[in-house]
Specification:
heterodimer, A: about 270 residues, mainly alpha, 9 helices, globular, B: about 375 residues, alpha/beta, Beta Polymerase, domain 2, Rossmann fold, 6-stranded parallel β-sheet, 13 helices, about 50% helix
Chain lengths: ~270, ~375
């Protein structure tokens, strides 16, 4: 039976193909734009299918599809792919897809395979503010996911340069300066959107009338973590490895908190 | 009718012999025309580079023609001693195989180098303009060019830098990306540091500072590199603005130590620093490489990477040979299926030149 979930499954098939292309490129050490372009096309098809899922689900619900953990995860992964498609070609960052596709695949498969697609886990409140704050906060998570990806790439490249052991992936990875700059821009974008989302949250909680404490604590912790990184990078010019490590750690904290809050306190 | 080649290269002959047999580019077209007549060849092309002199030709009988080509080489270069012992010959399949290997850089001193393809194209263009090529060599060279392009992109034979300077540039690009905003400081003058600085400059490195114990030498090198000479004691003060340091002094002790570097790094606002130490004994204390944002490579590191890249290219030879065999067979197949027509054409041409040529042989 074809449901909206089918489209999400199909999208995963294309993300998986993208992973395979990467493995093949790493094996053969193939350089050049060929594999990169192919990867980009495959990711775009995956993205279109992914969008179709969200659209159908949204049509069905009559609102932004963020009513349960499953939808939220799918939405966050969608935002990560969106950032990849935006950043990949404009910065000419080769190999960004190689790290993005596996992360998105893991997040979506975890969502698809676990029994979390419960209809209306949260009471549906029809409020533009509620939907807006949730959506923008999740898109911020997408930016943080991609910052996590560029940070991982930074650390791999930095390690190779430091230890003077250059593997075949060395040629495919962008320069560490470039990764450092992209990482910072993603962090600023994510932090800005998260801030807007939190302000929106305050407004919407006044409308709804109750304050979900664990979620607010989680959001505040994430906001403080990323705020510290943006401040450290922007004002105290902390750069490179430390920023990459902080970015990855913050993303891990965010992810764990995200599951924790949603599972313990639906 | 045979395709054949007579030639020598860096393996078969020492440089003294190679330079005697080299053809000047300016006279190459004329020489090809002379050769055509002297050895009664149907078609010919001369490839002359610093590492090889090779004559590719099509003739009615390769045995006689090859002997005539050898004689031509001796006569044309007015050689008193025979160089026959240095020359090799390949015929038909072997000739096609050899040209493919040459064009792909498999026969080059630096395995997989790409300059040779341009030189082969050049040689063909000159022969073509001199009217020395015909239906066979035209097709052969065209097919070889596209085969070389195919083999280059389908294998890793040209991948990875194989010289110290080029490896340093690769690393700089992996640290800084585009080198346009990078400032390079050369400490100590020498052929190797100059070559490395030039390599960085050719890939867009911004400004270059030169310092040396001898102010005179620093200014001379700075002049050549269009950089700025600074006095030897001044280098720490210029350090905050520098991204890449090439060090090659004759100092017996390290001149860049962690003690000196730690305070200097604080002034750099955590920008990366690439230290290229090509001096022996080394100029930079090994422990500097442990500092955050510092990337230190000494001459052994760079040579090891170049060696590893060469080894990686060598592992690609089998893959190249497999592709070469395909391209060779395709050409041989074409040649065989058109052999009769081509032979007929050249028979007629020989007959017509004999009849209308400027110096017809008197009828017996």
């Amino acid at each position: 039976m074809i449901t909206d979930r089918t489209y999400l499954w199909l999208a995963q098939a294309f993300y998986a193909v993208s992973c395979l292309i990467t493995v093949r490129r790493l094996r053969t050490g193939q350089r050049g734009p060929g594999g990169q372009r192919l990867n980009y096309v495959v990711m775009t098809i995956g993205f279109v299918l992914h969008t179709t899922f969200l659209y159908l689900r949204g049509q069905h619900l009559g609102r932004c599809p963020l009513t349960n953990l499953f939808e939220t995860q799918a939405f966050a992964a969608w935002a990560a792919v969106l950032f990849f498609l935006l950043i990949g070609p404009s910065y000419r960052v080769s190999f960004l897809g190689a790290f993005t596709a596996p992360l998105v695949l893991v997040i979506c498969l975890a969502a698809l395979l676990s029994p979390i697609d419960v209809l209306h886990a949260q009471p549906i409140t029809r409020s533009a503010w509620v939907e807006f704050h949730a959506a923008i906060a999740i898109v911020a998570c997408g930016a943080f996911a991609l910052a996590f990806v560029t940070s991982a790439m930074y650390l791999v490249q930095e390690r190779q340069l430091k230890t003077r052991r250059l593997t075949s992936s060395f040629l495919l990875l962008p320069s560490i300066e470039q990764l450092d700059v992209i990482n910072f821009r993603l962090l600023i974008m994510g932090f800005g959107m998260l801030t807007v989302g939190m302000i929106g949250g305050m407004v919407s909680y006044r409308i709804v009338g109750h304050w979900p404490t664990p979620k607010i604590i989680w959001a505040a912790v994430v906001w403080l973590l990323y705020g510290t990184i943006v401040l450290a990078r922007g004002l105290w010019s902390v750069r490179g490895r430390k920023v990459a490590l902080m970015s990855m750690a913050s993303f891990a904290v965010m992810l764990v908190g995200f599951w924790g809050v949603n599972l313990l306190h639906p | 009718m045979n395709l054949f080649l007579v030639g020598l290269n860096h393996r078969s002959a020492p440089v003294e012999v190679r330079e005697r047999l080299a053809f000047a580019r300016s006279g190459l077209g004329e020489a090809t025309q002379l050769l055509l007549g002297a050895a009664s060849l149907h078609e010919a092309a001369i490839l002359s580079t610093c590492n090889r002199v090779e004559i590719y030709a099509l003739a009615g009988d390769a045995g006689d023609a090859a002997r005539a080509v050898r004689r031509f080489l001796h006569d044309h270069h007015k050689l008193s001693n025979s160089v026959d012992g240095y020359l090799y010959e390949h015929r038909d399949d072997g000739c096609i195989q050899h040209l493919l290997e040459v064009a792909c850089g498999l026969d080059s001193m630096v395995l997989g180098e790409t300059e040779i393809l341009g030189q082969v194209k050049d040689a063909y263009d000159i022969a073509h303009q001199a009217g020395a090529t015909g239906v066979v060599l035209n097709r052969l060279f065209q097919k070889v060019f596209s085969a070389a392009k195919h083999i280059r992109s389908a294998t890793a034979i040209t991948r990875g830098s194989t010289s110290v300077g080029a490896v340093a540039v690769d690393l700089a690009e992996k640290i800084f990306g585009k080198l346009g905003k990078c400032t390079v400081m050369v400490i100590g003058t020498g052929a190797m540091s100059e070559a490395t600085a030039r390599a960085l400059q050719s890939r867009g490195a911004g400004s270059i500072l030169v310092c040396s114990r001898s102010q005179e030498r620093a200014e001379a090198l700075a002049g050549q590199l269009q950089g700025r000479a600074i006095s030897y004691d001044q280098w720490p003060s210029e350090f905050p603005a520098v991204d890449i340091v090439i060090s090659s002094t004759a100092a017996p002790h390290p001149i860049v130590t962690t003690e000196k570097l730690v305070p200097l790094m604080k002034t750099r606002r955590q920008r990366p620093l690439f230290l290229i130490d090509i001096a022996v004994p080394r100029d930079v204390e090994r422990a500097c490489g442990e500092l955050e944002h510092v990337y230190l490579y000494d001459i052994d590191d760079l040579q090891e990477i170049a060696r590893a890249n060469r080894a990686a290219r060598e592992r690609e030879i089998t893959a190249c040979q497999a592709l070469i065999a395909q391209h060779r067979q395709r050409f041989v197949h074409w040649l065989e299926s058109n052999r009769d027509a081509i032979e007929e054409r050249y028979r007629r041409r020989v007959a017509s030149t004999a009849f209308t040529g400027p110096a017809p042989t008197p009828a017996a």
